[in-house]
Amino acid sequence: MADHYFSAEPGSADVRRTVEARIWGREYTFTTATGVFSRDRLDIGTAVLLREVDAPTGSGTFLDLGCGYGPIACALAVETDAVVWAVDVNTRALELTAENAKAAGVADQVHAARPDDVPEDLRFDEIWSNPAIHIGKPELHKMLLRWLERLAPGGVAWFVVGKNLGGDSLQRWLTDQGYPCGRVGSAKGFRVLRATNADPRPS
Ligand SMILES: C[S@@+](CC[C@H](N)C(=O)[O-])C[C@H]1O[C@@H](n2cnc3c(N)ncnc32)[C@H](O)[C@@H]1O
Fold first, then answer.
1. 7 touches ligand 1 (CB under 6 Å)
2. Which end of the chain, C or N, has fewer beta carbons within 10 A?
């Protein structure tokens, strides 16, 4: 099977490097590796998301859906007292997220886990994601619904999606699914979306 960044076990050699990034005014050095998404720099879409949305504050339970090497999860944990579940299907990405959380001093707040290893009863106050569009629309929709169903009442989900990769249609689809969704930013060809938890769900 081809070695995509969303492979469960990347077949490529685990060649590490570091990338520097400034997120919400703080400098980070992240370790990345072959076989994970955007190993050479903070992804532009991720950078747009973290620039267009203010850093959260306070506490709660957050989800970074598709964490990669963990830049979003680490920054969320540094800025808040929240517990952050960093979920990915790629085991190398999960290892890197755990290492990066340790390096950022937030190992106690960040839980890097495969989707099936997240306790079923957890509900999320915030979901943050640069979602894996390349898995295809049916899989993407399935993945998003799986986690949006666990958004706490009053919870908020933030997404960044390329305009050319269906950012506007995803916004409409989320609204149709009962997660009213607005565009809160647009830069460098990316849409930043904010979805909330409408209750009850449309039938
Ligand atoms: C666009 S990348 C974003 C990575 C990271 N958040 C960043 O900003 O650099 C999407 C991530 O989703 C992961 N992914 C793919 N399918 C997934 C699934 N079903 N559940 C959770 N994560 C998934 C991929 O392995 C990849 O790391």
1. no
2. C
The DSSP code sequence of the chain is ----TT-SS--S---EEEEEEEETTEEEEEEEETTSTTTTS--HHHHHHHHHSPPP-S--EEEEES-TTSHHHHHHHHHSS-EEEEE-S-HHHHHHHHHHHHHTT-TTTEEEE-GGGS-TT--EEEEEE---GGG-HHHHHHHHHHHHTTEEEEEEEEEEEEGGGTHHHHHHHHHHTT--EEEEEEETTEEEEEEE--SSPP-
Any residues with CB less than 8 A from the CB of 92 and at least 6 apart, and which? 9, 10, 14, 33, 35, 36
**pLDDT tens-digit readout, 64-89:** 999 999 999 999 999 999 999 999 99
Could you tell me which CATH class the domain 16-196 is placed in? alpha beta
pTM over 0.85, yes/no: yes
- Report which of 112, 109, 15, 108 is spatially closest to residue 69, judged by C-alpha positions: 112
Ligand 1 lined by 37 (C-beta under 6 Å): yes
Residue 12's pLDDT is 79
How many Å apart are CA 91 and CA 77, to the nearest integer? Answer: 21
Q: Where are the domains of the chain?
A: 16-196
What is the rounded distance in angstroms from the CA atom of residue 142 to the CA atom of residue 154? Answer: 22
Q: How far is the CA of 23 from the centre of ligand 1 (A)?
A: 19
